[in-house]
């Protein structure tokens, strides 16, 4: 089989977030340990040392690829271990516990769509589970080959070699892009053309276009263009029965949208190898402000007013006081609404002024000079210009946001429960939902003997008809991994039950995978599941694609 | 069976657009005849008198409803004739020719979702075709019961009794609305709540919410929120296997969107009985301008610039000079770009000023004082305020737009071919498409011996990545209806072939129905059709729902 060493640069962690060695440094670890010890009353915060591949005792592969596929398949332990899990709390906890009992038998690294088709042919003929794998940043068990049931084997199909921007249509502001390209490489290839896709999920560095499409990823735009769905012109999807290529169009009313069947299909219908995506001129004008609120409810009312004003800010994120405190965004004395606009075309003073008025109308305070605007001359903003504006509270929050997954891994290593979950709900139901979720999680932590802990909330996205609240839970848990996993599973179940009872969605942008199945099954109409199953039978007759995700095998 | 006389107010025309007697008055007829005679060189413009129900010789119904359904079924000739066709050129021509050979056997008027379910049960048991019917404004053969194949019978299921706004959620700006409500009644029921849906397709007066959803209707918003799809929170769909009710959410990433399977399903999967729709505060601020261009290409470049600027105008309609002339919008000496913004929240001066700059950057001329803005005080705009702003060129065009279907009927009555078709395409392909379509239609008119005629183009909607061009064809045709139908069919085929060859969609917002099937079958991926057929088999095992629409029976 082929040998697939690490790419140049840092090597991906096979058990946790990001790159090996890019986590907290010793000083950060010590500071965090002190904080955890004093803030949460955790006694033993001695971190578990990260696992090494040598320590692992992976089971032998159960299947061998045919000769024609050997050049693109590997059974190297590093690759198999790295493709065993996604990046949820459950995953990192099991990784740190050296629990790699059920890795994929093989990792396949197709070079093109033809390779993908050949892999699916082989898997279909042998009944081997085929798990499409983008950046592996799933936090819902969406790439877990070991959870595919009792078939003869499971192959993780990693698309990372399909990493090119193939074509840019400057007049239509669109680009044809391969599915396996990671965020930074995608933007890097668009930059010389003066355009950007500006889809920045938190996982941006370690997730791929195909993964974003398959899971209906949520980007950094807080309003209007929230999901990746909005940027799709057309898609190419390799299914076990052949390739689906939708027509590239700015809009259409010709029957149900074929793209929408594959957006959110989480690898159960096919492998997304390519898409025409809408891109934009790089923004030159920016405007931002931070409003402080005495209550979260007042901040929510302001966010609602902004969302309903038709201003379409790029940022409209509400952080509760605790979230603001632990991310270093503020001293925790107020709830914060981060407002920002961006444009490649026009200065944004009227936009931000009106948004700030909305915030003030609802009791928000924005200091004098609290509105910051900037415009760069010319057509080519300097490298790093995207970041230059992120000073002050918004900048602090953004940095914490990008480091959060590393921090989460460190907390897990110290014996904590540290996880997030997210949803969306209409405004009329939000306040009750917020209270009920907070209570349910707090009570569940107590019931399972975890804690004390903290539960925070922010809005990641807001719509005219409702917010997408995002909850973070950090609590002292059982030191023993299996016991801590059971604790979290109970807390997560309590939270998810509460979402269902209050008319919210089980996920706004984390997808369903395997972990959300129980609640997704209650949320989606039964007859829609029948229709989806029928579509899957048609496209994947052998039922090999990501079994157990979204619908039953 | 039940007796279902006309509603109060005018009676709907059973053969043409709108209300009986609301078409052109004798003076308008004479003026139009003179114009046609001089402008198109048509000799005999003596209008065909409209048909009356008494003249028709409808075949006897082939099926009788069971006793329990008799109160909601009728075989009155007026109802059967009125449900025989939609409102395309083909339909009106056949109506004027008294060709009502294949009406629905019965017209059903369910009172609620339970009635719809009972009707589908009966049709399923007997193999009778069930054709969901909203306002009957289809221009693609979407409601033609006589084209449902050779089953034992066909029932047109008219939802007009499901005509209520059931609930308004003021905080989320959303309303629960029955599927059979017509546009004016919908807005009339929302108005006391201070909200509006602002979805105004050209058919607004004579089409329904359910019809808009089933066909992915295009509204008056020229950018951003173009299709009805964007306003959907959730839907209730009665299928032969039961009811699908999606969860009401502002946004979700939980699997492929169930709503998107039914949006554009054109009655082949179920009957949309209810939906939660996003509504808005009524606009108080308006701004508009008209820019004149020497060439259509320059106007298109300006429309592209506006669409890519992120300004989101409510109007961004480009009319070619001939379209501007025949609609009375201008003297035909220039191509016009109609620009407008509206907001419930803020004055729009910066928005319209920047849009006008974009137009001027591309050679557009906007006279001094050519920007018009208005703001109404208070929260409750006066009745008719929506119209007050429509003076000048934009107002003239709008009035012509709303009268166009009546005008079209009159032209057909005078022996003309008069029809429209529409599409969408990316900007990089637009100029070639525009030239090719114009040539193809002109040549086809000549080939079939029709004409001389005119072919005009406007943009109904524009996206950052491409426009939605809308073509109007008016030409002298054969006096004999069957011959004229054949002429148009040949012209339409030439136009549709050209759309396919140039990467455009067969329809941006007119739907597929039966008339667009041949080209839709080339446009949609084969495997998507397989998946859609599988979904239909699941939801409609007897295959009774609107057979022949979108996919084969």
3D architecture notes:
Residues 3-8 and 379-389 of chain A have low confidence and may be disordered. Chain A is α+β, with helices and mostly antiparallel strands and 553 residues long. Chain A has helices at residues 26-40, 77-82, 89-96, 113-126, 183-190, 209-215, 258-262, 296-308, 321-326, 349-361, 385-388, 392-413, 427-447, 481-501, 517-523, 526-539; strands at residues 73-74, 106-108, 129-133, 154-158, 165-169, 174-178, 195-196, 232-239, 242-245, 271-278, 280-281, 285-293, 315-319, 335-343, 372-375, 416-422, 453-463, 466-476. In chain A, the strands form five sheets. A five-stranded antiparallel β-sheet of chain A has the order 5-6-10-8-9. A four-stranded mixed β-sheet of chain A has the order 1-2-4-3, with helices on one face. In chain A, strands 13-14-12-15 form a four-stranded antiparallel β-sheet. Chains A and B meet through β9, α7, β11, β18 and α16 of A and β9, α7, β11, β18 and α16 of B.
């Amino acid at each position: 089989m082929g040998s697939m060493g690490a790419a140049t640069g840092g090597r991906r962690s096979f058990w946790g977030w990001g790159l090996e060695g890019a986590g907290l440094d010793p000083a950060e670890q010590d500071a965090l340990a002190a904080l955890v010890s004093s803030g949460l009353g955790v006694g033993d915060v001695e971190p578990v040392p990260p696992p090494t591949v040598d320590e692992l005792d992976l089971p032998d592969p159960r299947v061998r690829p045919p000769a024609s596929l050997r050049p693109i398949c590997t059974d190297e332990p590093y690759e198999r271990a790295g493709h065993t899990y996604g990046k949820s709390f459950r995953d990192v906890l099991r990784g740190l516990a050296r629990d790699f009992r059920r890795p994929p038998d093989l990792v396949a690294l197709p070079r093109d769509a033809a390779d993908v088709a050949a892999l699916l042919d082989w898997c279909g003929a042998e009944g081997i589970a085929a798990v499409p794998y983008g950046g592996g940043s799933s936090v819902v068990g969406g790439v877990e080959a070991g959870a595919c049931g009792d078939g003869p084997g499971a192959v993780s199909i990693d698309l990372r070699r399909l990493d090119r921007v193939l074509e840019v249509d400057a007049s239509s502001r669109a680009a044809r892009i391969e599915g396996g390209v990671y965020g930074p490489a995608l933007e890097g290839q668009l930059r010389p053309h003066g355009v950007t896709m500006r889809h920045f999920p938190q996982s941006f560095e370690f997730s791929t276009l195909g993964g974003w499409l398959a899971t209906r990823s949520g980007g950094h735009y807080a309003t209007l263009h929230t999901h990746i769905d909005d940027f799709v012109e057309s898609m190419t999807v390799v299914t076990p029965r052949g390739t689906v290529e939708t027509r590239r169009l700015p809009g259409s009313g010709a029957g149900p949208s074929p793209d929408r069947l594959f957006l959110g299909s989480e690898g159960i219908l096919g492998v997304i190898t390519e898409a025409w995506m809408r891109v934009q001129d790089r923004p030159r004008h920016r405007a931002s402000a931070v409003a402080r609120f005495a209550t979260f409810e007042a901040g929510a009312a302001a966010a609602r007013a902004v969302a309903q004003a038709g201003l379409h800010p790029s940022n409209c994120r509400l952080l509760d006081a605790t979230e603001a405190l632990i991310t270093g965004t503020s001293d925790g004395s107020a709830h914060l609404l981060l407002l920002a606009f961006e444009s490649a075309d026009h200065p944004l003073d009227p936009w931000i002024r009106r948004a700030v008025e909305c915030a003030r109308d609802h009791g928000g305070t924005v200091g004098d000079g609290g509105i910051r605007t900037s415009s760069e001359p010319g057509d080519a903003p300097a490298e790093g210009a995207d970041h230059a504006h992120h000073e002050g509270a918004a900048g602090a929050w953004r940095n914490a946001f990008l480091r959060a997954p590393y921090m989460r891994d460190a907390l897990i290593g110290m014996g904590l429960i540290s996880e997030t979950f997210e949803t969306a709900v209409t405004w009329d139901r939000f306040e009750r939902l917020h209270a009920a979720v907070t209570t349910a999680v707090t009570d569940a932590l107590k019931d399972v003997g975890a804690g004390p802990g903290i539960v925070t909330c922010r809005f990641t996205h807001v719509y005219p008809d409702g917010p997408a609240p995002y909850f973070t839970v950090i609590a002292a848990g059982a030191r023993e991994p299996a016991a801590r996993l059971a604790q979290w599973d109970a807390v997560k179940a309590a939270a998810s039950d509460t979402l269902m009872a209050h008319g919210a969605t089980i996920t706004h942008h984390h997808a369903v995978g395997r972990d959300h199945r129980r609640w997704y099954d209650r949320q989606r109409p039964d007859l829609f599941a029948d229709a989806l199953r029928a579509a899957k039978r048609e496209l994947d007759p052998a039922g090999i694609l990501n079994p157990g995700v979204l619908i039953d095998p």
